[in-house]
Structure formats: structure tokens, C-alpha cells
Amino acid sequence: MLNLEIPPDLVVKLERELIRARQREIGGVLVGEHRGRNSFRIVDLSVQRHGGDAACFVRQPAHHKRFLDAFFARTGDDYMRCNYLGEWHSHPSFSLDPSGTDCLQMLKIVTDGPDAPPFAVLLIVRLGADRRVMLSATAFHDDGTAASVRLRVQARPDGDPPVTDGGWLSRLFGPPTVNPVRRLI
Fold this sequence. Notes:
This protein is of the alpha/beta class. Helix content is about 25%, strand content about 30%.
């Protein structure tokens, strides 16, 4: 089973984006760090606010190229340690289970020729009735199988600063304070 950690500041980022999007699906890509055998940590995620409606999200790869290029530059192009982990999108009106379309899209990613990744994670998120973030992750493998992912919120290691959205508030006042106790997986 794949183990995946997500830091509290990224849960906060998802919460903000879900509130902003309301009933429209949004999404992006996940990038992370290999921590050990079958163990990974999400380091950052991109956000695409357009391309979705109440029942569908279509990722536009060109939108995420600059994000990926910046991530790889920041991590010294060390693809064995830091790389693309997968995709995320919201299901504001549906369950946290991947739809048939989601499964087909993810399998296409992992079977798309010799440069395809050996696996890709699909993180599905939504706000619960109490407005807490709910998360579910599934790993899709290049052999055509899919399996649940063990997902947990875990503080960033020392020296790894929280991700900010780069907005003017963050530049003036710093990143938001995170209270991981109020988050729900």
C-alpha cells in the first residue's frame, strides 16, 4: 500500500480554494518527495480554477507547466527524490470515490508510453457539511490496477517552509497560521 503525507498548510490551501470555488469542480497537479519504500510526501500542488463545472473538471496541462518547471528547478531536477505524484480535483457534489471518467483519465496517464510514470495518485477533495476538508486518495499503477492510499496529515519537516499562494496578503503578513486539529481526513 502506498503511504502519502500531506502537510497542514496544503490542507488549508485546499480549504480556501474549495470555499472560493463553491459548487464548481477545480483541480491541479500534485508534486512531492519520495520518503522511503512506498512512502511519499506532497510538497506542493497547483490550482486550476477554470475548466470545471458542477459535475466535471478538465485539467489543462499548459496551465501547470510553469508550476512544474518551478518545482523541478527548486528541487535541483532531482527526479528520483522529487517528482510529479499525480492529480487532484474536487467533488463538491459527489462522493470522494473516483468516477469512471476519473479512473480512465488516471490509467491513461500511467500507460501513456515509455515516459509515463509507474503510478499516479488521484486525490479527491471536498468540504464536508461542517466545512472541514475531506480527502481521499487512490493510486493508479502502470499495470492497470488501482488501490487505496493511506493518507495522513503530517507537519512539514524542519527547514521545509509552508507553501503560500503568493498573494499580496501572504507577502505582507506571511503564511496563514495552521491549526491541524480542526482538519479532517
